[in-house]
Every structure is written in C-alpha cells, then in structure tokens.
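Quick one, tokens below:
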C-alpha cells in the first residue's frame, strides 16, 4: 500500500483557537460510538480547530473503532482512538502530527523539509479528495499565492508542486469552487505524498434567500467591474500545456509543452504571443492509421478561452442576446460566496450555441469560474468549427464539446489559471455498413504555473510560435533534461498506464 500522509481538515465546526502547548491537555467530550479512525479524529478537529497529520501505513484511517464516550483530554482521546501505545504526538502550528515510537517526526518547525529534485527546489506531492465521498477532486488549484507559483490537480486529484527553497516557510493555498479553501504550511509536505480532504461549503439558507436577484444584473456587473478585478497591464505566464487524442480509451497521441505567454490586459487589442520553452510528443505506433483528426488552432483557442478578455456571446447582454439566465445556487469560490448562474439558448433558436454555468463572486462581482458546452441538441451543426480536415469516405460527427475556465486571485487581481477542453466525435467509414461507429476523444488543457509582472515586454518575432497552426506539428528539439524545475499537471493514472503501454517514441526533431 502506498505510504502517504493524511491531512485532516476541520469538518464539523470550529471553536476559538487554543494555544498549541495547551491543546493536548484540553478536555473534550465525544459520544459513545463506533466509527472509523478518520471520522473520530475528525470529530476532534471539529472541536479544537487543529488538523491531524499521520502516515496511513501506521494509522489506518478506515479501521472501525469503538469509542467509549465521555470526557477526556485530547491526548487521551487520541490514545483511545488509535489503540496503539507506541503512537507519539507532536503539535506543529495548527496541526497535530501522529507518528510511531522510535520514528522521529519528519517535520521540524525549525528545519523545513529538503526533499529536492535540484539544489534549489522542494517537491510537495498530494492527492486531494472530497471529505465526504473520499473521491479525488480534479482541477483543484494549489499555489504559493505570494509568489505566483502554482499548479492544479489532475483527473486523479494528484498534484506535484516544485517550490523554491527560499519559499519553504510559506503556505500552500488549496482551493476549488464549492469547497472550503485550505491553507497548509509547506513544511508539512514530507517525503511521502500527502492526502488532503476538502470539505464542501454549506451555504446558509438565508444567503440563498437574500441572494435571489436578477441574474442578468449579476452578469452585467462582471463587465462593469473588470477594471477593478482583472489586470489591465501585460504579464508573463509560464504555462504547462497538454493536448491529446484517445480512441477506445487508448491514447493515440499526446503532446506536452511548457510555454511562456505574453498576455495582454483585458482591454488591449494587441496580439498575444507564445514562446515554446519545452516540448515532447508521444505517439502510438500501433494506431498510426487511426489518426484522422487534427485539432485546429488549439493554442489560439486556449488563449481565447480567457472569456474576460474575449467576451463570448453569453456574457454580452445586448438587445439581441439569445440566452435565458437563471440563478440556480450559491456556493463558495476561494474564501467567499459565489452566485451560480445557468444559461441556455432561448427556445426556437437552433444555432449551436453554448450552455453552462457561471460562478460569480458575490462580494466583488468577479467571474471566478465557468463551465460550458456547445448545446448537445445542435452540436452536429458545429462540425465545421471543430474539424480541420475530413478524410474522403469518412463520416465525422461531433458528439460533445465542453470547456472549463478558472481564474485565480493574486495580488488583488484575478488571472487566468486553468482551462480545459474536451471534444468527442463519432467516426464511421461510409462504405463499412456493418461496422459500428468509433468514438474519438480529443482534449487540451493549460495551467498557469507562474505569473510574472516584472519587466514585461513583447517577445522578438522570431521567438514566438504561430498559435493558429496544428500545435502537435510544431518542430522542436527534444531536451533530455526536459521538465527540469517546471511545474506541470501530473498525468492521471489512465494516461500513465497508456503511455507505458504505448510502443512510444519521443520524437527528436531539429
């Protein structure tokens, strides 16, 4: 079983802070019950506001424990729950570290961890899960907010963050729409991966009732507050980018890159630029003749998914606006409440327009996230927009085209943080009457791993790449040191397994 550390986040409530030196001797009362170790320790977190960290190979979080109930100190309660006399306890800031007797705690407040892949970086690894379902949570933002360094979790809820040694005393901010934001010291990410359990935000009923307002007004406020919420000056983004094609759940091709982007402000009409820093291509030699799709201008599409800068029709509330809007919920985005506005084209309109949901901060009217797709009822009409070239004798129909956009607040402004697109097609040979149609899934995603506002200027023309070309055909020279200290999106288990099965080649091109 994988050795990992569990970070228990306060789930059921929060009491006034206690001093670290006193918390273990504080008396608390728990009911007589039979619950898992995780659930019982979580009760203590709820009563004290202190979070537990432990190695899951030492303390099994799913083990059922009979707790006698009654009033005990925190120390006594932990002993009754773990039922192991060799368990040692140490308090570090707002965290309680549990470890085996004879095994010194790996965390020391005076000497941060120095697991490094170079002399200048610490590697922090984690899996983020939903506290109730225990399922992994994809697209969670993990960042060192003061530095502009960050990444996201993959489809398996995993992230890896490479942190400069100089930032080892800072905190990692973990945030995702619909969950309570968590702030975790870098020093608590030890040599082993850490499991982080996020609690969904429960919005009080009165907030929902008071929040019943005109949804068009909420959307209009997004644009009215752009000058306050979003950067007007150009910045550099260092981004990790990935695109791929799957057939029958088998990876046909995968292209990954690190890009530097000259990103202009939301009001600027100046052209944005992209510089290629690192790139690799992995192709499945067994599937060569099945690749019939090439994704058109995906880098350009990624840039234009900054819907605050490139206003789509569902945010443009002109007199001919073709959408209906409905406020469907209140949730949490980062540390504040957010309106959830659903939109869909009006009855009688049969164009392939978008439908989806917008997440808008209730305090400052900033758009923090958006999920939308081409309306499935009319997606076949969007074929020419999605397909670059169709081979003769082949019928290609799009089935689904969905997109996700997330913004992250940094230094008082909201910056593009993560975009993802997933497009599914059905492909059938017109002459093969009895053969079933094949499903092909293409995807792309980009995460901003670093924001830099110092000395920003346009790239020399020869250093930028064309963004409207087929990116996978970009010529590059492979670098065997490859990712080096760049932050990337970890391949999820499915991708890792697929890559290992492929008789792959990393193409080296001059």
């Amino acid at each position: 079983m994988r050795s990992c550390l569990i970070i228990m986040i306060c789930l059921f409530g929060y009491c006034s802070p206690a001093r670290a030196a006193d918390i273990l001797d504080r008396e608390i009362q728990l009911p007589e019950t039979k619950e898992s170790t995780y659930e019982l320790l979580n009760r203590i977190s709820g009563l004290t506001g202190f979070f537990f960290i432990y190695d899951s190979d030492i303390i099994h979080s799913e083990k059922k424990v009979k707790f006698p109930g009654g009033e005990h100190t925190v120390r006594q309660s932990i002993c009754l729950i773990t039922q192991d006399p060799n368990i040692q306890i140490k308090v570090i800031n707002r965290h309680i570290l549990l470890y085996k007797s004879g095994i010194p705690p790996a965390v020391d407040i005076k000497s941060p961890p120095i697991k490094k892949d170079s002399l200048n970086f610490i590697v922090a690894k984690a899996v983020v899960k939903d506290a109730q379902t225990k399922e992994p949570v994809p697209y969670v933002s993990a960042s060192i907010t003061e530095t502009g360094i960050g990444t996201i979790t993959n489809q398996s809820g995993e992230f890896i963050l490479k942190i400069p040694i100089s930032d080892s005393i800072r905190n990692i901010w973990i945030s995702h729409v619909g969950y309570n934001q968590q702030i975790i010291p870098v020093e608590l990410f030890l040599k082993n991966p850490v499991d982080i359990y996020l609690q969904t935000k429960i919005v009080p009923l009165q907030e929902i009732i008071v929040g019943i307002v005109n949804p068009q007004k909420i959307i209009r406020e997004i644009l009215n507050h752009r000058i306050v919420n979003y950067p007007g000056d150009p910045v550099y983004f260092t981004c990790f980018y990935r695109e791929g094609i799957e057939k029958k759940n088998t990876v046909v091709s995968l292209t990954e890159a690190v890009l530097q982007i000259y990103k202009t402000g939301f009001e600027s009409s100046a052209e944005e630029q992209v510089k290629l820093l690192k790139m690799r291509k992995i192709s499945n030699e067994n599937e060569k003749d099945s690749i019939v799709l090439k994704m058109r201008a995906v880098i350009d599409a990624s840039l234009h998914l900054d819907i605050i800068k490139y206003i789509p029709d569902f945010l443009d509330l002109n007199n001919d606006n073709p959408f209906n809007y409905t406020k469907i919920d209140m949730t949490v985005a980062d540390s504040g409440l957010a309106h959830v506005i659903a939109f869909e084209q009006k009855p009688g309109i049969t164009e392939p327009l978008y439908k989806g949901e917008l997440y808008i901060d209730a305090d400052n009217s900033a758009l923090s996230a958006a999920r939308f797709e081409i309306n499935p009822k009319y997606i076949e009409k969007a074929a020419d927009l999605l397909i670059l070239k169709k081979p003769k004798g082949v019928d290609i129909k799009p089935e689904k085209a969905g997109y996700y956009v997330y913004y992250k607040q940094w230094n008082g402004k909201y910056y593009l943080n993560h975009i993802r697109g997933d497009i599914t097609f059905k492909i059938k040979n017109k002459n093969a009457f009895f053969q079933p149609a094949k499903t092909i899934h293409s995807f792309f995603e980009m995460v901003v791993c670093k924001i830099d506002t110092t000395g920003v200027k346009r790239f020399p023309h020869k250093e930028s790449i064309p963004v409207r070309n087929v990116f996978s055909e970009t010529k590059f020279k492979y670098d065997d040191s490859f990712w080096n200290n760049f932050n990337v999106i970890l391949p999820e288990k499915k991708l890792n397994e697929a890559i290992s099965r492929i008789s792959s080649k990393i193409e080296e091109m001059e």
